[in-house]
Amino acid sequence: MPGLYAAVAGRVCPRPAAPPTVDVMTIVVTGTSGFLGSALVRALRADGARVLRLVRRAPAASDEAFWDPERHLLDPSVLEGAEAVVHLAGAGIADHRWTESYKRELVDSRVVGTHTLVEALGLLRRRPRVLLSASAIGYYGDTGTREVDESAPSGSGFLAALVRDWEEAAAPAEQEGIRLVRLRTGVVLSRHGGALSRLLPLFKVGAGAVLGNGRQYVSWISLPDWLNAVRFLLSTPEMSGPVNLTAPEPATNAEYTKAVAKALRRPVMPIGTPAFALRLALGEFADEGLLAGQRVLPRRLLEAGHRFSHPTLKEALAAVLW
Question: Up-side HSE of residue 105: CA atoms within 13 Å toward CB?
Answer without folding.
Answer: 12
